[in-house]
Specification:
CATH superfamily: SCP2 sterol-binding domain
CATH architecture: 2-Layer Sandwich
Helix content: 40-55%
Shape: globular
CATH topology: Nonspecific Lipid-transfer Protein, Chain A
Distance between the termini: 40 Å
Oligomer: single chain
């Protein structure tokens, strides 16, 4: 997908992760599960892949932000885990730039994994299900599914001096 720009490989300064680790982590899980549930509602995620995820636990950790989202898929919904216990069934860990590159399809997860920029730990078969599910998302369908936002007037009152 050509988005007209390129996300460079970068790493946020260390103090960002040190601060981020001290902040509550549940908002990340709520935001991520909300987005995933919207994708389910828009029928962007294959049902057979979702069935394979039933009852499984996941962690997405962004090293350089200190952020982490723990969640599960149960009863047709992604649900945040506020106090995750034990090891997740599947964990994805990387710096923010790697996740952004995957999300925009600038880089393939396999490339980032083999370059040691993306860590995938846990159930290998489940990891393949998730990877194939993400690959199957048609981003053009997503663009067509989103409502068109109204255009704002060019001369906003606060932009004038």
């Amino acid at each position: 997908m050509n988005q007209g720009f390129s996300i460079p490989k970068f790493q946020l300064p260390g103090f960002v992760a040190r601060i981020g680790e001290k902040l509550p982590q549940w908002p990340h899980a709520v935001a991520l599960t909300t987005a995933l549930n919207a994708a389910v509602k828009l029928k962007l995620l294959p049902e057979d892949s979702l069935a394979a995820m039933e009852g499984k636990t996941f962690v997405v950790q962004v090293y350089d932000t200190g952020g982490q989202a723990a969640f599960t898929y149960r009863g047709g919904f992604f649900r945040p885990l506020f106090n995750p216990a034990g090891s997740p069934d599947l964990a994805f860990r990387a710096n923010l730039s790697a996740f952004l590159q995957v999300a925009t399809r600038q880089e393939d997860p396999d490339t980032l994994f083999f370059n040691r920029e993306l860590s995938i730990e846990g159930d290998t078969e489940l990891g393949l299900v998730v990877k194939n599910m993400l690959d199957a998302i048609d981003l053009t369908q997503l663009k067509l599914s989103l409502p068109q936002l109204p255009r704002l007037p060019i001369n906003l009152p606060f932009s004038q001096r």
